[in-house]
Amino acid sequence: MPDIQLRLTLDELNLVLEGIGGLPFARVFALVGKIQAQAGEQLNAQAPTGPKEG
After folding, report:
1. What domain of life (predicted)?
2. CA distance 21 to 15
3. Cα–Cα distance between 8 and 25 in angstroms, integer?
4. C-alpha neighbours within 13 Å on the C-beta side of residue 8
5. CA dihedral in degrees (12, 15, 17, 22; nearest 10)?
6. Which of 5, 8, 24, 37 satisfies CB 3.0 to 4.6 Å to 12 for a cystine?
7. Domain parsing of the chain, residue ranges
8. pLDDT at position 35, please?
């Protein structure tokens, strides 16, 4: 099955996770993990790196 990309705000993504959180764990745990991993990668890439020394 082909992948698709969605653009959601953090609030929207949390709402999606809240919704699927009501489903049986065995059915959604892999999906929740995939969402969290991809969101974490994107948030880490956007995080400021801190002050530069020089």
Report:
1. Bacteria
2. 10
3. 23
4. 14
5. -160
6. 8
7. 10-45
8. 94
pLDDT of residue 49: 73
* Contact predicate 13/24, CB 8 Å: no
Asked if 39 and 13 count as a contact pair (C-beta separation under 8 A), the reply is: yes
d(CA 47, CA 54): 21
Q: Please report the DSSP string for the chain in residue order.
A: ---------HHHHHHHHHHHTTS-HHHHHHHHHHHHHHHHHHHHHHS---PPP-
